[in-house]
User: What shape does this take?
Amino acid sequence: MVSRRGFLAGGAAAAASGAVGIAAGAAGASLAAEADLETFAASRQAEFYGLHQSGIELDIQAVTNMVAFDIKESVTKADMLRWMRLLTDDIARLTAGEPVLADPAPELAIGAARFTAYVGFGPSLFSKLGLEAQMPEGFAELPAFGVDQLKERYSGGEVLIHIAADDPVVLAHGTRGMVRDSMPFASVRWVQPGFAHSPGMIPAGLTHRNLMGQVDGTANPELGSSDFDSVVWINDGPEWIQGGTLLVFRRIAMQLDTWDQLGTPSKEEVIGRKLSNGAPLTGERETDVPDLGARHPNGLLVIPEFAHIRRAAPQESGERIFRRPFSYDNGMNERGSMDVGLLWTAYQRDISQQYLPIQRRLEQLDLLNQWTVPIGSAVFAIPGGVQGSELLAEALFS
Amino acid sequence: MRKISLLFLTIPLLLTGCVSPGGVVAEDLWVKSSEMSMQGGMTAVYGTLTNNTQQDVVLVGGETEIAGVVEVHEMTMIGGEMKMQEIDGGLTIPAGMSIVLEPGGNHLMLMMLTDDLEAGEEISVTFDFDGAADITVDGIVAKPAEGGDEDYHSGEMEMDN
Assistant: This one.
């Protein structure tokens, strides 16, 4: 992108200098470059085949649909494998920007737009199919937390398809194809749409902002790093989960009306970070390590006892997760109060060793709890990726 | 109406497909799984067939373990209604061209199914040609699908077989 921008600037400079012959050629080329820029989002493709499923170790896309299913009563392991055969092929095609087989509206496949989808399984699926022995270590329903106000319509589920793309039409079309192929096997339990930034709004690798204004996802392991591998990707246990991960999903409602009554210093103390750039209150840059011991001249902690980042900071070395939260906006009531929040997702090797200790600390004390309420919750085990002609979760259902 | 389109080679071959250089190439094949695709019932195979030979070839029929009868069908307007019927003499694929078998259009009709055909199952189908070698394609997946305005529900009597 940088070099392309440089080229456009060069074309403009040549035109301004009055070098007519050169300017004409440059203008033609810059028009083509501009047209390229206009449709750059369509051509960008994620990788489907590999050790891991797609849509996790990837800069967040613009829009998402999380669709949870409950399987039909008669469904067997063999039926699950037939379902996975359909979904594996669907995702491969959609990731490449192509219509699925039997697509009644193939003209909607207008570009890859970083389409991704991954599949996961809830704990109750394992008991329903007699697959308890295949449960990954550290995978179980979450305990009830004191802060929870969970609603059934946002919680649970036996199978998850988490779809995302950089374009809402591409997302809707892909979702439709995959749900159509799921209907012989399951019914939809819930669907939760969400969004982040449009392509081109923030540079790759930069943390995006949630609707409270905070940069959300700081201190995540870096994509593509060995740190990411050790936090997220499972490398032992049952064959089907190797290369996979465990997902904690929480729908977290934000109380923006009362949050907006706070001034900037108060908002920053709640989190322990500056709103402007996400830097810890003890630092200058987002990447600076918070100094949890630092005190003001009056003796008060710079990052207060109740601050979110103090409570969430790991107390054992393994207590880390990878967060990839999308926002949701579900309209507003007659008083203009917005029903907004996060489709909060955390990926890890072991929920009991990674998410749970952090969440227990946040439950006990985290001033942020006053403005954030968990209203949906689910956990899913995400199988590893596929190569060649393998099917998703083939080793689990064969 | 026969639908003939040029083959765009940018479409990559995915999970199903059968390459026979110099003959007919089948791509993106699928078979419909619906409430009609039960034992004794019917379904159809769709996809793209490309004639890579120098002469016209004709799709005249096929075989598959799952069906007692295989016919090449077209959808056509009969008395103001879209009906399916067997194509007299088969379906011609001109040299170097492709035909698309699709719901609401030409298709390979499978009748008198020997077993239920459920979504996600795979079948093997042999396509019989005049003018080129027959081809057998494995791993043709059954997709849950409706649509194409196909007059499936009116029974064989109205199919003008």
